[in-house]
Queue: 3 jobs
Job 1
Amino acid sequence: MRAKRSGRRAPRSGDPLWGALAGISGAQNLVAEASRLEEYSEDMAGFRATPAIVVRPGSEDEVRRIVSLAGRRKIPVVPRGAGSSLTGASVSKGAVVLDMRRMDAVLKVDTVNWYVSAQAGITLEDLNKRLEKDGFFFPPDPASSSICTVGGAVAEGSGGLRCVKYGTVKDWVLSLRVVLPNGKVASFGEPLAKNRAGFDLVHLMVGSEGTLGVVTEACLKIIPIPAAKPKRLLLTFDDWRSASDAISQLKASKIMPHMFEFLDRETIQAINKNLSTSEDEAEATLIVDIEEPSLGAATEIFERNGARKVVMAKDANEEEAFYQIRSMAYLAIRGLGKAVQVEDIVVPVDRLGEYLMKVKEIAAKRGVKILVNGHAGDGNVHPVILYDEDDKKSRAAAFHAFEELCRYGISVGGSITGEHGVGTQKAKLLREQMKAHEGEEALRLMKEIKKVFDPEGIMNPGKYVEAA
Amino acid sequence: MRAKRSGRRAPRSGDPLWGALAGISGAQNLVAEASRLEEYSEDMAGFRATPAIVVRPGSEDEVRRIVSLAGRRKIPVVPRGAGSSLTGASVSKGAVVLDMRRMDAVLKVDTVNWYVSAQAGITLEDLNKRLEKDGFFFPPDPASSSICTVGGAVAEGSGGLRCVKYGTVKDWVLSLRVVLPNGKVASFGEPLAKNRAGFDLVHLMVGSEGTLGVVTEACLKIIPIPAAKPKRLLLTFDDWRSASDAISQLKASKIMPHMFEFLDRETIQAINKNLSTSEDEAEATLIVDIEEPSLGAATEIFERNGARKVVMAKDANEEEAFYQIRSMAYLAIRGLGKAVQVEDIVVPVDRLGEYLMKVKEIAAKRGVKILVNGHAGDGNVHPVILYDEDDKKSRAAAFHAFEELCRYGISVGGSITGEHGVGTQKAKLLREQMKAHEGEEALRLMKEIKKVFDPEGIMNPGKYVEAA
């Protein structure tokens, strides 16, 4: 029997579920009142679903007992960190939500074997603050680093600005402790630089979006904070074709930026308007971190491709100011007063220019505004669709634009997601990508693996692979 | 019904299996005579099993048709590259062996998106020769690079000397084309810098040792050949404790060597004896590649820990000579005229000294000779057990020593394999490691995943996870 997915009234003191959970984690760690459940009923993209009850477990053993209980009663279970997911992955109607943030201990910083072992509920920011004391860092840096948790970042396989150089979360996980849907505890992988004992279940958990089990602890690779800081450049171009050619040529010239971001004219306009700045409102703005030895070659490439401005930050303040342009983009766009949908498509780097021009074409056709920013070095585009939430036609136009953005990405050999994941939002599009690229067998195997881990279908049900 | 594993007479011209396979790949691409099957009946560690027939497919479609045929007839199928496996993974009694080496094309070198796409049968050496033309390389460098294939390296999740800096094969695979045991073709992953669409089946294939499907093509990340070469040092120490302390301190000092190898006194003695060299026969010899800026700090660490010799290679010739000490070790040991078993244990780097002393203790207790070399920077030890093949007692002693080496590794938080894999050799020890570290649920999930991919049990049966 699959788990029930229909809504259920939130249990109250005296209700058997409330009582059982209170017996495990203490009544003070339950959230069941409608007003307090609100916080857990929405993710950062506005996907909504009200849980039955929230538990804030304090230990792996509590997680194990809660999952066992939910399994026996066939109630959905959803692990949750900050709820900063953008795809509906962290909300589930009628579910027992596990707010993992009480489990936030750093268990070990190993400066010889270069790993950190931590509980799932610590934020990436706190993790990095702790690592900084020893001169180390954990490279993946999602925009939500100040609130998002290790468990959430593992479940989503998150990316970030530094990932062009360092890769995403999947490249940094050595081992995981997991409470399985059957209530048993397992460890996947080993806290070792090398390990070939058994199939790789670690990477199956990374990006599984809470559908295979609850990550309680992670052992993550860390590296020393680099001694030499790269130089930061701000560039503008008059058209995307030139900017895109410059990006491709930089990579073809074997230059590996530490960060390589882009923003379009409308994003810069939003920033200037809302944050009272006066940045150059060019068609394309790039912000690039380049190591000193490659600076000359990089500048030459940018100028050869018609950059109308190439500015190197002259000091740490200016470096921070350049960075702020990128990091303030979302806030500035929010300030435009429209509903916002942040998309996440990956295309081959040499098709970036073509894709960005297509974005504008789709926007014009659908009559919605689409701003773009993203990670140029790995072809990861974040189109931001603006629409009017109260207008049915505008909502429909935004939805059609979103689907078209994904489908065009698939058609040029891209992926519907680089770092945000699938959740409920893209389950149908995941199926389309699999059919177009991987083949239906790949999706079938994923669905079978889901059943192996979760035969009763209690873990974050009705989403992602299961729903594709 | 599971595949039959008992021996069968090799089919001949006129036999229906022979005829069917000749119809797919051509009679000239079949090997069925006993004398020619010999080459396919043994791996590099001497694990023996005679296949029914060998086919040398020329295309993915042929592989698909062969696997379908084997599936219908419930005959085991084993993909094979050079057969350089050391664990019995590439030999299987009565099987249809797919010698993949005719499928050796480089399909695409993408210097913008930094990947190479190639068929499974190309050797790593030929792949790197092709990449060198564009100034790129594929970092993992198993000792068998001159013969081992991309498919074999993916199936085994191979490591090598450069892996201390760059990681093993698992860190370099973007996507794979796979013929599944049901004869269907799937693609796993995408040739993109980032991709979060679906569960990670790529990493499930890496290190699956031919038990989940046949890899026909791989898309591998590549990086530019570094402009600045590190400096190469040769060091000797009078005891393992000091050498091991130096290794740990180097890593704790945030120095990342590009290569960090070690050899013991008896290995150096074997080299001096068999290759007429006159290397310092110290208890511990280290060969380290260090980037120039860290050279002073590294030298200081080595000297502080009592290195009796710290020599920097003065030119490319001397660099090559230092490298040859390491790469000739196996040949020199072979020259001792004994049967040789090369082991592959990983321990936390800070327990390396303790482990190496235990190796000598085990050797003394069991009355066998055990030489050691390996990759110091990632704690990967290759004990080389010498024994007399014709002496039952010596064989038994070697076997007990081998098991003890693995078990002691497990007991100090290590792994029974870092880069050679499990095969038939370590299936029982895999179970022991899982029980001790990961828990039995992890192994159960692996076995279930094997059944999902291969319900009829035709792919490289009776080994690894299935046999654990």
Note: The two ends of chain A are 20 Å apart (CA to CA).
Job 2
Amino acid sequence: VSDLSERVLSGDVRAVARAISIVEDEAPDAAALVRDVFARTGHAYLVGVTGPPGAGKSTLVDRLTAEFRATSTVGILAVDPTSPFSGGAVLGDRLRMQSHAADTGVFIRSMATRGHLGGLARATADAALVLDASGKDIVIIETVGVGQAEVDIVRTADISIVMLVPGTGDDVQALKAGIMEIADVFVVNKADRDGADRLVSAIESNLSLQTFGPGDWRPPIVKTVATTGSGVPELLTAINAFRAHSTTKQAGRHRARSEARLREIVSERLMAKVDARALAAIVDRLSAREIDPYSAADAIVAAL
Amino acid sequence: VSDLSERVLSGDVRAVARAISIVEDEAPDAAALVRDVFARTGHAYLVGVTGPPGAGKSTLVDRLTAEFRATSTVGILAVDPTSPFSGGAVLGDRLRMQSHAADTGVFIRSMATRGHLGGLARATADAALVLDASGKDIVIIETVGVGQAEVDIVRTADISIVMLVPGTGDDVQALKAGIMEIADVFVVNKADRDGADRLVSAIESNLSLQTFGPGDWRPPIVKTVATTGSGVPELLTAINAFRAHSTTKQAGRHRARSEARLREIVSERLMAKVDARALAAIVDRLSAREIDPYSAADAIVAAL
């Protein structure tokens, strides 16, 4: 592992790919790997992009990557939390990978759920650390959907970009779904379609319900047409403005993120200590309704 | 609590509402309440209904409830995992509640995420226990979306009904998203729309990729128009067929469900033992990158 870590730190592409596989598989070496590289992380800026299926996330991330490349190297993690069973990645189309294939300044990787979702959020955070340690300046975490799972993943990032598209009905749903609270920047993509202005107004009127103090960041709304690249420079400007604005606030965000990750790892470590046979025996009693789940949990905790 | 439990067991509507609030809020009394009523549960049949926003879930559940009422009492839990921040319930429209308001054989309750999602899945399971204990024959758990969160919630149920609608593009997404694996019955709602037959074919061809042995249940596809009630009796027939088919298989499902819930409660109990000040101190070091998350977790586990 420590050889692999060295190669990750030197930016070796194959080592980075291998390291991400290790954290994705929750392989035994994952913890050692993160230990090795952790002190050399904290340089990359993490950009989260989320939105409903079909919002054009891949295309936008592609365009954004091209903009970033003028000054920065870029890692992209395309995460699909809606794919709990397949083990394959729905995002990360081959075509897209090819468009940056010749560019060593861009690393693209798809990630899907393998097992529990908490695992995916953690694996994504660890994969971002690997890309950070390998020297990427920007790490884009792209995830489909607007549910709690996506929120957890987007929270890994330094900035959360929420994409919406006009006329799908998804817009209203997303606004309802509490997505307002996580967005640092809104993108209305496919802005050449009917209903784009109505969607912008809907977001605006939602924002106007919130109270912003003098020093508070008010999420801007950027209209884009990702297929043509229209609006993408403005999006980059918005990202840089947020980055400049939030340097002090980011400390709190980093801290909350660190604590959440720590709690998850501790929880997994503790659960690993539960004796599998004792657990099976008590599940038998639970299935027979001889014991209730809370008393069963007390019994297991007491046995530890 | 034990007075409340008695009233729940006698079917007192206000006690049931109060008890569900207690489990939803993860109030200290929640465990005692479940303990009290657990031995008297296991009677209700749990029906999970999931599908994308706008699929017509509320309307279908309404129609289905009317069918069930011919022979059974019904509890409905409308769960919205996409609402992590509002604390309010997006589903559970007032109108709908009114349509069954005069019927004491129906209990309807909306539930939204309060805090972490694991909490919502657990609260939903506990609320279903409360409804079960109160004597409801059928408990319908309705949830929006097709992500892992919804999958976890639907897994609480004895049967999983997946709703899709033609022409939204959601269909393909849902099929991709691994929803095939959790569906016991497919419903194609708004079946009077263009594309309904194409959607049925898409599901069929997906099913044909799977191998079904002689005794295996092959998920049927039921076409409905929930607004008119068309297809709803056929859906009831499909549910009853699955119920009759799966009595032996259900044991395994129950067991897996029991174990998952138990693990979750144990994990929460163990985490509650972590000293908050020690955790805060180590998070400080983590934020300063003086220690990596895995070593930090080891230190906390060792201190327990």
Note: Confidence is low (pLDDT under 50) at residues 83-95 of chain A.
Job 3
Amino acid sequence: MNVDLNCDMGEGYGVYRLGLDEDVMPLVTSASVACGFHASDPGTMHRTVRLARRHGVAVGAHPSYPDRIGFGRRVLEATPEEVHDDVLYQVGALWAFCRAEGLRLRYVKPHGALYNVAAKNLSVALAVAEATKAVDPGLWLVCLSGSGLVEAARRTGLRHVQEGFADRAYARDGSLVPRSVQGSVLHDAAHVEEQVSRMVGERRVRSIDGADVPIDVGTICVHGDTPGAVGLIRAIRERLEREGIEIRPFSQQEDKT
Amino acid sequence: MNVDLNCDMGEGYGVYRLGLDEDVMPLVTSASVACGFHASDPGTMHRTVRLARRHGVAVGAHPSYPDRIGFGRRVLEATPEEVHDDVLYQVGALWAFCRAEGLRLRYVKPHGALYNVAAKNLSVALAVAEATKAVDPGLWLVCLSGSGLVEAARRTGLRHVQEGFADRAYARDGSLVPRSVQGSVLHDAAHVEEQVSRMVGERRVRSIDGADVPIDVGTICVHGDTPGAVGLIRAIRERLEREGIEIRPFSQQEDKT
Amino acid sequence: MNVDLNCDMGEGYGVYRLGLDEDVMPLVTSASVACGFHASDPGTMHRTVRLARRHGVAVGAHPSYPDRIGFGRRVLEATPEEVHDDVLYQVGALWAFCRAEGLRLRYVKPHGALYNVAAKNLSVALAVAEATKAVDPGLWLVCLSGSGLVEAARRTGLRHVQEGFADRAYARDGSLVPRSVQGSVLHDAAHVEEQVSRMVGERRVRSIDGADVPIDVGTICVHGDTPGAVGLIRAIRERLEREGIEIRPFSQQEDKT
Amino acid sequence: MNVDLNCDMGEGYGVYRLGLDEDVMPLVTSASVACGFHASDPGTMHRTVRLARRHGVAVGAHPSYPDRIGFGRRVLEATPEEVHDDVLYQVGALWAFCRAEGLRLRYVKPHGALYNVAAKNLSVALAVAEATKAVDPGLWLVCLSGSGLVEAARRTGLRHVQEGFADRAYARDGSLVPRSVQGSVLHDAAHVEEQVSRMVGERRVRSIDGADVPIDVGTICVHGDTPGAVGLIRAIRERLEREGIEIRPFSQQEDKT
């Protein structure tokens, strides 16, 4: 059994730093790199891709609605065509930094509000998937488990992986409890570890209201910008390893097929 | 004998239109497409690349300093490393739109103040050339004739083409007379035609102060955003054709070698 | 009887021009000036305020969601607190240009998607009204007739004027038919004139589905960016004058009280 | 004897935080608040002005060239007219937040590259001064001691205060040693304290090459974004108080006259 650990990276901007990229990079297997629309800038993207290369971490693009002030967390009434072109632009930009560092861009994972909208709105999900495929049909699409993004990946013929969240509470329908709801973000390390362990080992997650929800994930999203993040990621790794689960990039696994 | 006609394209932004792209595209052989830093946005880039494809026009990236309000015409004290990453970002973004339309990106031509700074500052020119090469070593670099960009292309091993301007006055040293100087932009059609004809046919240009300056150009920059632009480009084409000069993309020529 | 004619102005950006401000300014009594979030920039704002001063036109601020690429026409999931601060910022910026030109800023009219959201969402409307009042309690708020903005103006104690649209179709409930619906924008001059004449003279408007809807407007919004705009505004003026309706700034009227 | 302590504040942006505003605010007498061009955004500006109000700290505007990625530290080839309008825009925006919090905006201090350019280029300095005066002729201008900004303030009739830097090395001509030069930023607490003490008490500063340079300052700029910043500011305060120098806002002092 195996699983991938992915983390949002390169979310600084100009003089601003966000997240502990240097500390987190050695602990994950995939880096979802911001592309300048919700965070990051050309210099930050370059540094982040270089850091991923040094640690042998797979690089994915993390495109967003154009909203730096809101960090891409606010829904924007963009048409599918606008989303398509925004994603194309961002993925192409990050692809160039991968080229410059001799890496192959591996996947696309929409960020924040775009991820949530795409999970529920198939037109938007298809726009994301088609833009991804237009850049490189060999790219993977990272999808909220059970969401419309999975359907969009299937329809466009893109490889995809379903994603689980280590520190986010789930609703009974398998969707994420919105950040605005109390209890939506898990802070207790034991709870987080347990959630990851069950997701990967038993393919189930306990919802916020106590139901057992089936889930099928190939990658676990961890966060690198909260206090104690590094310790928590280390604890997750150790737990998974103790349970005999190998941690490796999802994108690598399937390339072998 | 042959020459390329290139024009800056896709310089609208959001609801704004600039230039007569639809009218000019059928008349040129290369389109230098803005990449979102001085002008353009993802939707405009997509429309412009699609238009170029329809007319069989070669597409190049037209990266700039990040300065939309100043249209990339203001010098910004950016380091060569910042220029490198800014160019990489922009070229990658446009590359993606070319991929989506089944085209190959052909060349990079820096815009406005970046073009002028790169012409005189070798570190900046090298930053542009290295970013171009990092995306694709098969890309061409479009260089002000006789400038530092030519030297940078040579040092990095990039193919390059020297550019002449149909409607700009030249100084005795072969540089462009700055836009702020009276007489720097030629408005007289006969004068423009004559300048192009001599540049291509005799490899010389008359400087603003009357000297004969040697010049060796493979592409002529025409403008599509001035009154009478379309008529002027047509007149240039007819003049060149009358003189037996074939108009074709510079990037195509060398691919045949 | 009297009415005000207002027009969105200063909607260019950098090198881009939009609308026929020079031609329209002499024909209207109030100018709603963009503040840099959906359109405009400091130089454009200054030129526009100066132009309004020259023609004795009352100046209002036209704040928007931060969305230049979408021209402020896309709904953004901003909190009321974010809207409040965004409006405060924009109104303050325009206020400074009025000060520099010796004018008094007269009113605030939210733009595009913000106008539409505020019309239906009282929290957003209150955020706009409170930010307006915070800058100057003597400012007017321009409100879609019968909308939540009117209620917000009342609650905050702001003076307000209700607005009718010369060239937009109305729904039976007095709201504007969305731009995405066929027939939402009136192009026929006679139809536009008739709509304005009835709004002002009879306080009624014919809805898109033929109902007679009561309406009470103190200002009519005309547009200056469509073909034939200037002729249409002139026709509206003449029609109103023929009917004995005086055209003067709404903000001036009440100052006399 | 008395002096003012000012600190750049509100330099976060969206989710990003920069500087220890909450800790530093109680220790200074003037807050130079970023206005959205090099840093800050409407929400950050509001929070910062509110914080200043709570601590009775005088608020000034800290306008910049439009360059968020470069944090306003890169020279931009803007015309004096562009600088004028950019400053007007930013000062007006911050003025509105002061109004909303019941404060009076007290001063303008240009940021980063704009401060340095204005110090040496009188046209740019005059543009800054005139924009400041246009908003409110009662505003103060904060000027590098002995620089062109002082001259610009005199010519426009603006009140001004000369500024000294606690932790920056000086050249023999009284200008700041550029940040790119080794030793330009002082890190040794004793050295910093000593420099402040001499500036205020003896009206002299030791240049980086050992000369004694006369200087006449009414405000000392301290920084709140370096490790140990809070301790250092506290040490400066204690030193000044031990030497019998009162710390109070420069803007308050002169209002009493």
Note: The longest helix of chain D spans residues 80-100.
